[in-house]
Design brief:
196 residues, mainly alpha
């Protein structure tokens, strides 16, 4: 079986992996704020550094779960939605990996110190160091983008769900059952649904 024939399971697993790791990372420390006064470093979680992280990754998880049962048209819609989520998350995460801005920790520093305003925060914050989590999350967004592109390329070749449960007659579109009650029971015995 080729990769394209296993497209549904491959895509669903990639969506769920990216979304699941994203949700987990939202509770982990993303940034460590070293204060200029030498006080204890302030740890900032992913959800505080990136407020849209948890909602978007939960949406990706939902897309992954739904992708396992939807038809051909919705596969493309879900692929596009996942690609948009991956791009948005990537754009928001990349600055936190490379050079975290003060705005990412401003609310946490204000909550801890009671100080607000950019000038006051510049005086308090000595440096901001990212943990490994922003990098892990960014790798997940790349995986999600690749998976969503794979969905759009391979969705037409996926097997239709539920085919193994259809009878030969129902697979060919025979839907008219007999009107006689006895014949209906006989058809049921042979595996045909007379109500179709």
């Amino acid at each position: 079986m080729s990769l394209f024939e296993r497209g549904r399971s491959t895509s669903v697993l990639a969506f769920i992996a990216a979304g699941g790791i994203g949700v987990i990372s939202s509770t982990q420390t993303w940034l460590e704020v070293h204060r200029a006064d030498g006080a204890e470093p302030l740890l900032v979680s992913g959800a505080h550094a990136l407020p849209l992280l948890a909602p978007l990754t939960l949406a990706v998880l939902a897309l992954g779960a739904a992708l396992s049962i939807v038809g051909p048209v919705l596969r493309y819609v879900f692929g596009v939605l996942a690609a948009l989520a991956a791009v948005a998350l990537g754009i928001m995460t990349l600055p936190l990996v490379v050079d975290p801005p003060l705005s990412a920790v401003a609310s946490s520093v204000t909550e801890a110190t009671g100080l607000a305003g950019e000038a006051a925060l510049h005086d308090v914050v000595g440096s901001i160091a990212p943990s490994v989590w922003p990098g892990i999350a960014f790798a997940c967004w790349i995986l999600l983008l690749l998976a969503s592109l794979f969905v759009m390329v391979s969705a037409r070749r996926w097997k239709a769900g539920g085919r193994r449960y259809r009878t030969a007659d129902s697979a060919h579109g025979v839907a008219d059952g007999p009107l006689d009650a006895v014949e209906s029971w006989d058809d049921l015995s042979h595996g045909t649904d007379p109500t179709r």
